[in-house]
Amino acid sequence: MARPRSEDKKRMILQAATSLFAQEGLTAPTARIAKAAGVAEGTVFTYFTNKDELLNELYLDLKLQLHSALLPSAKQMTLREKVYSAWHTYVHWGVSNPDEHQVLALLVASPKLSAATRNAGDQAFCDVSALLEQALQQTGTGHLSVAFVGALMGAMGNVTMNFMNADPAAAEQTCRKGFHAFWNAISMA
Fold this sequence. Notes:
elongated; 76% helix; single chain; 0% strand
């Protein structure tokens, strides 16, 4: 009889994969992932059929971690404040979780992700997409696509994170300035 799977072991494998992929790229071998997780290499394949499945599940796991951080506040806010809240959370998540942020960027660019995985990752951010759509309508820039604006937010957020990391004492000011540049970019296009 097969042993029951442990969510703790699966989590350890995903965390080890994140750490190694951040250090070595997505080509880090499963044997090293298993060793870093403290499990036998065969155990990795108990939880993931192959490395591609591991990459796809890790992508969804990281997207869900980020989305959990982005859950909106219950307090009343203007649309701009809501978009700023999403921005603030995104850049602070990236600064606080550099390995996860780096690996998520690698996975987004990976041809190993299935269309279904990409779609599921996008679906997790429907509320953020809806928020950006509202911002485009309010600013009169509805001719821009939400996908373009989301990519712009990601790119400008990455630059902001780099500057926040370079000068932690000015991180909050840099976060605000980055958002101001982003808001201007989407409202003046």
